[in-house]
Write a structure and sequence with these properties.
By secondary structure, this protein is α/β, with parallel strands linked by helices. About 35% of the residues lie in helices and about 15% in strands. It has 14 helices and 17 strands. The chain has helices spanning about 35-50, 75-85, 95-105, 130-135, 155-160, 170-185, 200-210, 220-230, 245-255, 295-305, 325-335, 350-355, 370-375, 380-385, and strands at about 15-20, 25, 30, 55, 90, 110-115, 140-145, 165, 190-195, 215, 255-260, 260-265, 275-280, 290, 310-315, 340-345, 365. The protein has a 6-stranded parallel β-sheet. The protein has a 6-stranded parallel β-sheet with strand order 11-10-9-15-16-17, sandwiched between helices. The longest helix has 15 residues, at about 35-50. The radius of gyration is 23 Å and the shape is elongated.
Amino acid sequence: MNKRSVRDLDLRDKRVLVRVDFNVPIKDGAVTDDTRIERALPNIRYLLSEGAKPILISHLGRPKGEPNPQYAMDPVAKRLEQLLGEPVLKLDAAVGPEVEEAVENWDGAGVVLLENSRFYPGETKNDPELSDGLAALADLYVNDAFGAAHRAHATTVGVAERLPAAAGLLMEAELDYLDSVLQSPEHPFVAILGGAKVSDKIGVIESLLGVADTLLIGGAMCFTFFKARGYEVGASLVEEDYLEEAKRLMEEAGDKLVLPVDVVAAEKMEEDAATRTVKVDEIPAGWMGLDVGPETVELFRERLSGAKTIFWNGPMGVFEMDAFAKGTEGVARAVAGSDATSVIGGGDSVAAVNKLGLEGEMSHISTGGGASLEYVEGKELPGVAVLPDREES
């Protein structure tokens, strides 16, 4: 990573506004998955060890620019305090005289957690007034929220333009792993893409075809490729507007692009639906493919067995339902069992890995699905671009 790091800053006695990603699921007033909080801890602990005074801010859910008790940060503060083992001073606003006064009178113990940034309409508009108000709270700014780095918001861009800014430890790790995949992967490099839509992944496919040795395609997106080949795909999900694009990609990729050879099909997307495992060109009329089949899992496992680098984004089927989860599980176990540097690119792939308890077997699990895909595609991430480059020593 060529961006200035939190390690490059003089932190002692400095108030540091830290953009974290605490957008976690909450049920009945309690955090149900604290992975994102856990991933933020090393950066927070580093700041505390260096004598800094961290002031944390995050979005949570989609409260539509106004206060909504359902999306208040109180449950996050409670869980953060338990995990961090330090006091967390939770404030009921993010900017304004009362917040400035509370920060001024803060004894510096533990951390301050500001209220949900999306309680303010100015957050998603990168509003100068909100950015000014947030910048007034601190001496320095650190962005450790890779999952929000593809958004040009007040807490990701506006404040970074107003204070000396740097990347946090998690942001640094995210960029280092993705850069290693894109710029200097060990070969053979195998990429796996799943999910529903080809349209979401065209740029990613093109980017990966330029660097990967093999690209394995699963999930519902494979049916657009099959339809482009002239196969009957029953009621499977197909993006008719992207058939020509799919055809073009297959022609450009040649043997690099590997599609499933069998699928698990059903008449409806329901847990108790009758299923049939069929060849990809034998899907019955009215049936839909909802997972890759066992022959495909074996084919993908073979392709992954000798890999030195693996990038995976997107499930192989409707993994939320046990009837259609075996493909995703098979691929996840193949990735976990390989000797490769494995980077899991956020989103549903992470949920699948966590569900199987395989997170400890992966080299790096990205906290940002959308951000990691845009980065792999070669798009500029506003929250990264705004950070100053590291000075050459």
